[in-house]
Amino acid sequence: MDLSILKPAQGSVKKEKRIGRGQGSGRGGTSTRGHKGAQSRSGYSRKKGFEGGQMPLQRRIPKGGFKNFNRVEYTSINIDVIQSLAEKLNVSIISKEILVENNLVSKNELFKILGRGEVKTKLDIHANGFSATAKKAIEDKGGSANVITK
To answer: Alpha-carbon distance 141 to 118, whole Å?
Structure first.
């Protein structure tokens, strides 16, 4: 046995197609591209989803879903964030102006207080909305949850 006589199995290795190398190669002339049309030109690349001119799948299927243009979207702020802000600033009244100054909401956003965390001190909070758990937690400590409009 000699390493110099090793060969791959018969038929397992094929020569690559050398396209466009003259008529004698059998793949000269149009070089397997056919005659005329976009696909025969150099630089052609088919668009993603192109189906030969047939209406593509993404256009055949109807649009779905629904977008409610009357939806009122709130930015949510949890009680633990409000509590830490109140402790940091040493205040008992939390208003929109304080939240805007501390970059928790922008001046045109509506915001809602949610119930994650706990209230440790009496707080008077003015917000556009409150969840039931947040309102209960605030009022249990003797604070008030005041709903403001816009």
So the answer is: 10
Structure tokens at 38: 């976009």
Structure tokens at 99: 């939240």
SS3 for 31-80 is CCCCCCCHHHCCCCCCCCCCECCECCHHHHCCCCCCCCCCCCCEEEEEHH
> What letter represents residue 2's amino acid?
D
> What 8-state DSSP symbol labels residue 133?
H
CA distances to 16, 18, 145 from 8, in Å: 16, 22, 82
Predicted TM-score (pTM) of the model is 0.56
Say how many C-beta atoms besides its own lie within 10 A of residue 104's C-beta: 17
| CA pair distance 38, 110, nearest whole angstrom | 54
> Across-strand partners of 74?
110
One pLDDT digit (tens) per residue for the chain, 150 residues: 789 999 999 999 998 999 999 999 899 999 999 999 888 999 999 999 999 899 999 999 999 999 999 999 999 999 999 999 999 999 989 999 999 999 999 999 999 999 998 888 999 999 999 999 999 999 998 999 999 986
